Every structure is written in C-alpha cells, then in structure tokens.
Amino acid sequence: MVQQILVADDDAAIRTVVSQALMRAGFEVRATSNIATLWRWISSGEGDLVITDVLMPDGNAFDTLPRIKNSRPDLPVIVMSAQNTFMTAIKASEKGAYDYVPKPFDLNELVGVVRRALSEPKGEQKRQAPDDNGEAMPLVGRSPAMQDIYRALARMMQTDLTVTITGESGTGKELVARALHDYGRRRKGPFVAINMAAIPRDLIESELFGHEKGAFTGAQARSSGRFEQAEGGTLFLDEIGDMPMEAQTRLLRVLQQGEYMPVGGRTPITTDVRIVAATNKDLRQLIGRGLFREDLFYRLNVVPLRLPPLRERIEDIPDLAGHFFNAATKEGLPRKSLTPGALDAMRRYTWPGNVRELENLIRRFCALYPQDEITAELVENELSNDANQFGGYDDGGGEAIDLGQAVERYLSDYFSSFGDDLPPPGLHGRILREVEYPLIAAALAATRGNQVKAADLLGVNRNTLRKKIRDLDISVVRSIR
C-alpha cells in the first residue's frame, strides 16, 4: 500500500518541488496552501505523515499541532520554517513535531527524514509542552552549522541522555548546557556547574561528592557536594578533560551505579542527576596519553555535540553583534550600530576567542567610543592589536606565536572565564603543572623513554624527574630498537 504524505505551504514553488521529490520516492502526495484544508484532511483520517510550514495564511502550525497530536497521536508531523532560530526548533519539539527542517533544505534530506519517521514504531513521539513558553533567545545564529545544533538540542530536550559538548574556548559550551536544562524535562530542578580546571586537585572529590565532618583536616562540618546540590536537575562538568585520574574513577562509578560516597562517608547516596560535560580538549588524545579513562569517555560521550568556532559561522556575526549591542543597551550603555564596511572587517577576522571575543569587542565599542556608528577603521584598529598578538587576521601567511604569547593568551581566556571574580588560590602550581606535563612528555619521547637521558636533557636530577613522572601520571614507554 502506497503511503500518503500531506504537504502544507503557502509557497506554490515549495509545494511543487517537495511534492515531486516525494512522488519520485514512491509516496502519494496531497498538497494545500492553508491550515484549514490540512486539518480537514487529518481529521477525516487521511495521510500517513504531515509536512507543514509554520506560518500559514490562515494560522500558525504550532497552534494546530496540539490538536493533531490529540486527534491522531501516531501521525508524524515534520515542521518546515524560514525562521531558523533556536526557539523554532524547540517549539517544534515541545509541540510534538517529529522533526524540524529549516529552509532552505535539501530535498534528499527531507525524503530521508520522511522515511525515518514512517519506519519508526508508533506511539513513541509523545511530548509535553513546558509550563513556560517564553520567547527568550538563549542561542543566536541562523547559519547551517547552528541549525544542526538546534535540531540536535531539540531532540535531546525530552531525554536524560548524557551529553558531551566539545568546542574551542568562547564558543558557548555552558550556554548550550543551560539551554539543555532550561528547556528540558529537568528545568524545574537545579542547574549546577563546576569547572574542573578551577578546583585544586586535592579538593575535586570533596567538591563533587561532599564530605563528612572530620573527613580531613579542616572539615569542621558536613558539606554537600555538587551531586547533592544538583539532585533532580543537571550537573554541568566543565573542562572535564582536566579532571584528575582518581576523580575520574569515582565519577565512572557514579555513572555506572547511580550512587556515590561522600569523602569520609560510610553510606552510599543514590543520585538522580543529568550529566552534561564540556571540554575544549581532544579527549581521545588524552586517552592515548593516559590522562583520561577510555571507559569514562564512552559513558560521557553518549551524545557528542560539537560547537562550531565563530570562523565556521561567519554569517552569524550580524545577528550576534546585534544581540550584544541590544544587551549592552539594556545595561545602560549607549546604542551603537555597525557600517557594512565594519561587518566586512569582522568577517575577515578569524576570531581566536570566538563568540566571547566578539561580545567583548561589542562592549568595548559601546563603552569607549562616542560614535553612534562603528566604522571599518574602528573595527580594524581594535582587532589589529589582537591580530598582531594572536594572528587573528587571515592573510594567509601568519607566523606561529611563541610559547610566551600562547601562555599569555591562555591566561587571558582563563581569567576572563571568571568574570569579575578571581580564580581560586594555587594558580601558580596549576599553571606549572600544565606546562610541565607536555615538556617532560616531549623529553621522554625524544629520548625514547630513557629517563637518564631525559633528566640530562631537561637539566634536572634523575630522582626529581622520577618524582615528577609519578606526580603528573606520565606513562613512560621504552622503545626497543
């Protein structure tokens, strides 16, 4: 029996090309330009699947979707829209749509979505709209790269699957984690974030799992950990690649068994949290270097989500700049705008600091410049300092920055991640550890694991090198020629 697809769009050209593609794929098609006709077909039992635009001349598909799901809950609905925003994707998911397809779209991709929807078991697509359908826009951008992110997030909102977000510094990993929480099934619970790179190594387990009174020197009272604070909600583990091995082992046990033991405790505590992890490092490389547990990686990487750097979504710069200008105006700063030449200058820049760097630039324009209109010259003057320091302008022949510049850039991003606050004490030791590991690992690799030669190369005592190898958890493999 040939399956029937109902298509609704007020654009005759779109109705035609979609209908033709579906008929070539072997489906029967009925097409209309209004919601009323579509609803009449659905209510009379016609159609095995619906494809509809959101904005129709006689109504909004989002208003009709609840009626469709109540009348025929097993009827898959695919929503099309030219309003390619995060909230469009989320609304489509919340209202019960099977999928959201942003315009313009690939016809083969649309046919593929239709086939998947029709092949899935019936009765598994029920969703419940949230209590708050506010129009706040947590994520900004309409580029193809961001459309993929929106669709992936929409599919994950009604699940508790563990998510690992990867991306360069400044791409918005915590913003995505908050969106997963605020628009997901755990939105009424707490959102608790912890930055693994900002906590002293010997305090991470206490921070995560809490401790009992007297568990260690200075533990004068019981303290709850982040798992307990996030109960019923979401725990965001930022910079998960910086978690020490011993803490990774305990985290793995929690993910496997659903319970944890406070430091100094004797009774395990059952936990109910959703884990969202994030990192700007390649965890597979860390696994190869013996710095990250492979079994923990697969526990965390149930749903991998890669955030694109700003240079891969240059077309989003006008929307992002407008968003940051509006935010600055709400904070009392003067309203500004960008000339077309200024936008062109921004598009030529490679944005090593990503969206965070763009936000800081917009704030500087609002706070420091008297002009109402920001010109290309002003943009180039501001960005040239960063470009000279970090190689930000893409002229095809930039030189690699030296170690001192790389460390300065890292520290700048690190301090800015705390906003108006300062990092926790012990920064000197943490930074030295970050630098020592690759230095010693490189020396051992160059000497094929010969610790005597490596110690001589580094100019340190052999016993000192052995101690550092133990303290830094460096794997030493001797090569045999």
Description:
It is a single chain. Helix content is 46%, strand content 12%. By secondary structure, it is α/β, with parallel strands linked by helices. The protein folds into four domains: 4-135, Rossmann fold, CATH 3.40.50.2300; 159-306, P-loop containing nucleotide triphosphate hydrolases (Rossmann fold, 3-Layer(aba) Sandwich); 310-406, Helicase, Ruva Protein, domain 3; 427-471, Arc Repressor Mutant, subunit A. α13 packs across α15 and α19 (451-458) packs across α20. The chain is globular and about 80 Å long. The protein starts with a strand and ends in a 10-residue tail after the last helix.
Draw up the topology in text.
Elements: E1 4-8, H1 12-24, E2 28-32, H2 35-43, E3 49-53, E4 55-56, E5 59-60, H3 61-71, E6 77-81, H4 86-94, E7 99-102, H5 107-119, H6 144-156, E8 163-166, H7 173-182, E9 191-195, H8 204-209, H9 226-229, E10 234-238, H10 245-257, E11 259-260, E12 269-270, E13 274-279, H11 283-288, H12 294-300, E14 303-306, H13 317-330, E15 337-338, H14 340-348, H15 354-368, E16 373-374, H16 376-390, H17 403-416, H18 427-446, H19 451-458, H20 462-471
Parallel strand pairs: 1-2, 1-3, 3-6, 6-7, 8-13, 8-14, 9-10, 10-13, 15-16
Antiparallel strand pairs: 4-5, 11-12
Helix pairs in contact: 2-3, 4-6, 13-15, 14-16, 18-19, 19-20
